[in-house]
Specification:
72% helix; globular; single chain; Vanadium-containing Chloroperoxidase, domain 1; mainly alpha; 14 helices
Length: 275
């Protein structure tokens, strides 16, 4: 499995950054054409679309609230912990890409200061599922960035060789990602352009992360068994955090994430003991 990842990353071309660059310029052109570069104009130009999508998606509150948790790095990465053992090369790029995405989100959110939907339209005018977010840090959607950062790395890492399977694999990953980021509208946390730009930034973060790791190999120690105790402690700590999350909000997704962590913890501990 790790061999497949290595081969795919070896064929990787950073020209894939052309697509997100083009899409971001297209969105900027759209906003300019609507004179929607100010905070108020930005939220108002997509108000009707947001309220329609929020109303329609909110028909499935429990499903939305579970799926939207996958935008939390701890949750989505919990499902991939087993690949630290079987495909450490993927995790090397995943860590770098996650750092890139965290930096971009940390810069962009305060830079633009866009109001959340509840702050812009009033919480009484939309459906809010879960925590009510009222700040001015809506753009871009951090959850969407996280989702597409992780899914893009997974997409490239495990890309099949045959074209027909590549199409199916790519469409499946992107469809799953779109479903996940749409939940941010359904729970009343983000505007449509927030999640769109978030997805693009996440995709770009993954490409940049893979390119950096391909050149510098920063995390090459991850596949070394002598460092397994680090991951054993990390998986154990994350499992404890997940248990607290279950007590706080009894969601099915947390049980699956915990199960994934415990399986990874068992496998990596067993391999280290037998070393």
């Amino acid at each position: 499995m790790n061999k497949t990842v290595i081969e795919n990353f070896a064929r990787f071309n950073s020209s894939l950054l052309y697509l997100p660059t083009f899409l971001l310029l297209a969105i900027l052109s759209f906003l300019c054409s609507r004179n929607a570069l100010s905070n108020e104009a930005y939220v108002n130009c997509q108000k009707e679309l947001f309220l329609f999508m929020n109303s329609e998606l909110a028909e499935y509150p429990r499903t939305l609230y579970n799926l939207t948790q996958l935008g939390d790095a701890l949750i989505i990465l919990s499902f991939l912990t087993i690949f630290i053992i079987y495909a450490p090369k993927m995790w090397e790029s995943l860590i770098t890409a996650s750092i890139v995405s965290a930096i971009l989100v940390g810069v962009l959110k305060p830079l633009f200061g866009i109001q959340r939907p509840a702050a812009a339209f009033g919480p009484e005018n939309l459906t809010i599922i879960g925590r009510k977010l009222m700040g001015s840090n809506s753009f871009p959607s951090g959850h969407s960035v996280t989702v597409f950062t992780v899914l893009t790395v997974v997409l490239i890492a495990f890309m099949p060789k045959k074209i027909k399977y590549q199409i199916v694999w790519s469409c499946s990953i992107f469809l799953f990602g779109i479903i996940l980021i749409l939940t941010r509208i359904g729970v009343g946390a983000h505007h449509p352009i927030d999640i769109t730009v978030g997805a693009i930034v996440g995709y770009a973060s993954a490409i940049i992360g893979i390119a950096i790791n391909k050149k510098y190999n920063i995390w090459g120690w991850i596949g070394n068994k002598k460092f397994y105790p680090v991951f054993i402690l990390l998986f154990f700590a994350c499992s404890i955090v997940m248990i607290f999350k279950i007590f706080e909000a009894n969601l099915v997704i947390f049980y699956f994430a915990l199960l994934s962590l415990l399986i990874s913890l068992f496998v990596i501990t067993n391999l280290y003991v037998k070393k």
